[in-house]
Amino acid sequence: MSAVLDPSSYTQQLDEKVARLRALLAPFDAPEPAVFDSPREHYRLRAEFRLWREDGQRHYAMFAPGEKHVPILIDSFPIASQRINELMPRLKAAWQADAALSNKLFQVEFLTTLDGDAMVTLCYHRPLDEHWQRAAEQLASDLSVSIIGRSKGKRVVIGRDYAVEALEVAGRTFRYRQPEGAFTQPNGTVNQKMLNWAYEALGPRDDDLLELYCGNGNFTLPLATQVRKVLATEISKTSVAAALHNLDDNGVDNVTLVRLSAEELTEALNEVRPFRRLQGIDLKAYDFGSVFVDPPRAGMDVDTCELTRRFDNILYISCNPETLAANIEQLHDTHRVAKCALFDQFPYTHHMESGVLLVRR
C-alpha cells in the first residue's frame, strides 16, 4: 500500500499552520508571516523503514504511533523522493534474490539529495561477512548508490559514508557533504527556500556573526558571504567534520568553527571559565552585530537566550513554534519581531519550521 496523503487538502492544512503561527506571534506584534510551501509529493529526502517478515519474505513496514506489533506493509512511499521510490522495489528484489543480503536484515535507511545522490544503510542482527560484502558491492554498483552495512559494533562502507547535496542561494550553488547518521534537513526544496529567506533577512553587513548549533554548515555557508567573519559552534563531532569539509570545499574562508555547545560558549563569552577548544581564538576580536540560532525542539535554554539579547539582530530558525514563542517572550522587552516566516518542511503533519528576525528596539 502507499502512504496516506491527500494533496487536495494541502492548501487547507497549510492555512491552518499559518493561522497557528500567526496566533502564537500575535502577542509580539509580529508582521504577517511570509509563507513558503512544499511540493505536495516526493518532498522528503530521507526515509527509514523497519522490515517485517510475512509469507517467507521481508517487506518494508511502518507502524502507527504507539503500535509496535501491527505493521503497515508498503511498496511505495509518495512523500519520499522519487529516487527513494525508484530504489525501494529494486532493493527489495535484490534481498529477495540473495540470502547474503536478506539474512537477519531488519532495517533500511535511505538518504537522497536534490542533486541526485543516494546512500542506503542496511542494518542487521548478525555479523557481516565476506559473502555479504561481495553481494553488497554488486548491489551498490547495480543501484548506483553508496551502501553502509551496520551490525552490532561494526560498520562497513561501500562507496562513501555521506551523500552530496547542492543548494542554490542568491544565485550561488553551495555543495554540502551530508554524513550517514547526522542530521540533515528532510525537505530539500523547502530547505533551499529557508536558506534564501535567512540570507535576505540577515542582509549584507560589515560586522561579524555568531552562529549557534551550526550542524554541517547548512546556514553557515550562505550567511558567511553576508558578513565580515563568523564564529560558529556545534557539539557533534560528525557534524563539525562535515562542516569543516563543506567550508573548505566551497571556498568559504571567513568562518572559525569550535566544538562547543551553546551553553559552553555562553560561559566562555561571560568569562565564567576558559575552554581548551578556544585556545588561539580571541573572542574580543569579534565585532558581533548578529547571532543566528537554529536550536533543537526544546528551543534555547534561559542562559543562551539571555546571551542572544546582547546582539542587535537575532536571526532564529525554529522547528517548534511553541518554544520559539517562549524564547521571544523572554526577549520581547529588548527586541521586536521585524520579520517572520513559515517553512512547510513537514506537509500533512502538525509540525512546522518557522523563522523570525528580532531587532533591538
Automatic annotation (TrEMBL):
Its EC number is 2.1.1.35. It catalyses: uridine(341) in tmRNA + S-adenosyl-L-methionine = 5-methyluridine(341) in tmRNA + S-adenosyl-L-homocysteine + H(+); uridine(54) in tRNA + S-adenosyl-L-methionine = 5-methyluridine(54) in tRNA + S-adenosyl-L-homocysteine + H(+). Keywords: Methyltransferase, S-adenosyl-L-methionine, Transferase, tRNA processing. One of its GO terms (biological process) is tRNA methylation. GO terms for molecular function: rRNA binding; tRNA (uracil(54)-C5)-methyltransferase activity, S-adenosyl methionine-dependent; tRNA binding. Dual-specificity methyltransferase that catalyzes the formation of 5-methyluridine at position 54 (m5U54) in all tRNAs, and that of position 341 (m5U341) in tmRNA (transfer-mRNA). This is tRNA/tmRNA (uracil-C(5))-methyltransferase.
